[in-house]
Amino acid sequence: MLIAGPDTRVVELRVHGVQGTTPQTLVDAVAAVDVAGDGLGRIVRPADRLRRPAPGPVLQTEGRPIPRVVEGYLWGGMTSGGVAKATWALLFPFSIANVAHWMLPPVPERNLPAHLLGIGLRSLLRVFALLLTALLVAQISVVSMDLLAAQCLRPGTACLTSIPADVRTFPWFRTFLGLLPIVVVISVMRRVSHVDWRIERKELAEAEDQEKQPASGLPGAHVATDPDTPALRSLHVVAALAVTSLIALGGPLKQLTASGQMGVAITIAWVVALVFVGLSVLGVLLLDDPTGGAPHRGGRWLRAALGRTPRRVLLALSVLLVLTTLALQEQLPLRVPGADVTVQVVALLMAFVLVLFGLLLVPAALLARKSWTSLPRELRPWAGGWFAAPVLAIGGLLGGGFGAGIALPVRKALGDQLQLPVGYSYITLLWGVAGALALLSMFAVASFTGAVRWRAFRKGKEWAREASLLHSGRMRDLRLATRAWWWARWERNHGHHMILIIASVLVVGAVLATLLRVQNVPLPGWTVPFSAFGVFVLGLLAVSLLRAVYLAARQPESGRRLGIIADIAQFWPREAHPIVPPCYALKVVPELVSRVQDHLRDPGTRVVLCGHSQGSLLVAVAAARLLEELPPHDRERIGLLTAGSQLQWAYPRAFPAVVPHASLARLAGGLDGRWRSLCRGTDPLGGAVMTWRRQVFDGMLLGVGYRPDGSEGALAPALRGPTGALVLGGDHWLPDPQRGPFPGRRWRSGVSAHSDYTSDPEWDRAVAIAAGLLDVDAPESPSLPFARRPETRSRDALGGS
């Protein structure tokens, strides 16, 4: 540990979690001002009455008070706020497919079968993502071309009577009106895929352009920009335009018939559209090969074929194809059969790709199993490394549900005399069956959970023995904490099971509807209630989503609530699907690293990166990058503090190839004991990071975890801090409700759960340890004075007073 000199100071750089926050809350001040950043990535400090940056409270250590500077990095503006960012929620199915790519199991080194399976799985993911884009275009076509242009605006109908008959019969009017919304949506998607966050500092941007992939084995080493994203984006746009033309020309199975030269022109345009779709599918299959696409391998031709100029030519030809389709359709027919056929064909292809993906994922997970067999069960990947399959299934079914949910209200608004495609009856049946099974599953899970909890409390089973140590002598707090510990532990242990249940009920409904549709079986009478319930579910899904987007655009607070989804999904770069919001981690992490390096130019400064919830993942990746780049004498001046983190129970288990358990151990060893984690047993979203297999024996909290040298093993019994926290290894277990209140410190009453970790006085002590100014095993400090005396009397088994 470095010895603190007279010029020593500590910079505490905080990063918030999902939903964003205000600058004042982040730095614990009544006012805050920006001191760096570009407006999207803001670095703020507390401000005095003249709105000048003010120093933070001094940091008390065993020797003397140390000056402290509190800074905060705000990244919430990248995921919420404004109409544009609110509409990103409409791309949620695309984001799910992109996240599924990062959930794939790791590929063992020097294992050819695992390597080939990894290439195949990533290729199938990109094909599935391309089919999702085609499904969105087909569903928009059902609304714009079939319902609106072909049926509602047909001459002689009583729909939208404000439009005169002369306008309805005007050549190419209805065709243009049907194609316009589709082209606009495709243009918006292309625009979204071009949006990217620009890194503030020039040297950082140049470093990113080098596409240097670190191979250190630290957390987030593979989170980098994919050089194939521009080509992948162009292929999606080309496929979307080609599918648009294909629908207008009759669909993928049969073209429109016409006589003479018109028939020949339609045939040529139809074949060209099929060729463009085929080229797009072939392109996404080949692009995913990370070795074949390398410049020094046999994939040089692919890089050249999908360069900037060829992409522009291909895009121009696709636009020309749509214009040709418009010219060939002077008047739309009474119905547009191509829309219904395309939806069904794309849905069947998605089901086939999903089944093949799930089958290939089984041996890939089994081959990767050696990397986690030595870990305890609570640290192993969810579903044995097979979790990407159900997540991908949810993304596909939500994509189909969103489109059907929009079509049903539109038909209701235009008039019940309009007819939806036949396939939509089976979609409503799918969601009706899935909704009914979901209700039954929720009832079964709630009943079983309630019964287990009631039986446990009736028999006096102690679910949270750690809570009895944290709240010793405070029986009222113990009663509140015990119940909160139980619910938080249940949510952490079974949250992924709920996702599996959702995927299962959706798949069951999809299988039933698909079998009936493939065999062309008329829907029997017993399906009527399920179809009606499916209409309700789909309408509720669409209305809720659109209402959330509307409120997010009008009310910033609602935008931050909607940002929960975006904050989690947008951490991951564009890989499987390019039409997703930009990855904020590619901007946040380099700018955090740059800010820390700026502070470390002062030889007396020590920097502690502090992250809450999702921010803990960002600061962990930033700390890993700093360990790679800094010289040894500067590494000793950085520390890491995580609070309410998911770095043990969620991220290594959901993303075993990106944030594996071994990478966290390597990071802990590189920081040499300067990684501290604040955790509460009452927190349903955060948990322990540095320890596991905890147990209470003879009044002591024991466990296994990371040692300062990066090794793993049994730890010394937990030590009690001056504010009642138990420190086991690198984890600081906080009493919740807090002990106290303490004179001169901010107080928060009640159960805090996942919020306001900085209010606990243990925060300052953890910062001092992470800064290397205080030893964990130092003699126990005297307890801080209480503002009120703790209560020890109780009247029931749990100690409730």
Notes on the protein architecture:
This protein is 52% helix and 9% strand. It has 801 residues and is of the alpha/beta class. A ten-stranded mixed beta sheet has the order 2-3-6-1-7-8-9-15-14-13, sandwiched between helices. The protein has a three-stranded antiparallel beta sheet with strand order 10-11-12. Strand 10 and strand 11 (700-706) form a beta hairpin. The protein is elongated, with a radius of gyration of 29 Å.
What order do the helices and strands come in, and which of them pair?
Elements: E1 9-15, H1 23-27, E2 32-37, E3 42-46, E4 59-60, E5 65-66, E6 68-74, H2 82-86, H3 92-102, H4 112-152, H5 165-168, H6 173-194, H7 202-209, H8 229-248, H9 260-287, H10 300-305, H11 308-328, H12 337-368, H13 388-414, H14 423-458, H15 465-470, H16 475-518, H17 528-554, H18 556-569, H19 585-600, E7 605-612, H20 614-629, H21 632-635, E8 638-643, H22 651-654, H23 661-671, E9 675-679, E10 691-697, E11 700-706, E12 712-714, E13 719-720, E14 726-728, E15 731-733, H24 762-770
Parallel strand pairs: 1-6, 1-7, 7-8, 8-9, 9-15
Antiparallel strand pairs: 2-3, 3-6, 4-5, 10-11, 11-12, 13-14, 14-15
